[in-house]
Amino acid sequence: MRNECRINARLDKALARKVSLVRKRTRRSLSQVVQESLARYCDEALSEGGEPLSILKSAGFVGCADGPEDLSSGYKKDLTRSLGRKA
After folding, report:
1. Residue 18 within any structural domain of the chain
2. Residue 52 domain-assigned?
3. Domains in the chain: how many in total?
4. Could you report the per-residue pLDDT of 67-76, keeping only the tens digit for each?
5. pLDDT of residue 39
6. Which residues, in sequence order, are CB contacts of 39 under 8 Å at separation 6+?
7. What pLDDT is attached to residue 48?
8. Residue of 72, 47, 66, 69 whose CA lies nearest to 58
9. pLDDT tens-digit map of 42-54
């Protein structure tokens, strides 16, 4: 039994051209290009994945909304005031 995994993937024309160019310039096989690319991608993704803040920043979540600067510490006071107006 082999310790390998076979991958079948569809590439759009632009990416297929890039891969072909890399193969020609580096004189590597398609398998080598794909393996090295996936290894780099996975290493990068896994190194970022360890810290929640970096995940939120890379997703564009941090700094995407407006609001009071003290919302995390003053939300109870604001909520109590808001609920008091409704009663």
Report:
1. no
2. yes
3. 1
4. 778 878 888 8
5. 93
6. none
7. 61
8. 47
9. 888 777 656 777 7
| 68 located within any domain | no
Report the distance separating Cα 11 and Cα 34, nearest Å: 12
- Residue 49 in domain: yes
Collapsing DSSP to helix, strand or coil, 3 comes out as: coil
Locus of tokens 């941090």: 62
57: containing domain: 32-61
- Helix, strand, coil percentages (3-state) for the chain, rounded to 5, are 65, 0, 35
Q: Which residue has the tokens 């909520």?
A: 79
Cα-only R_g, the chain: 24
- Residues with pLDDT less than 50, the chain: none
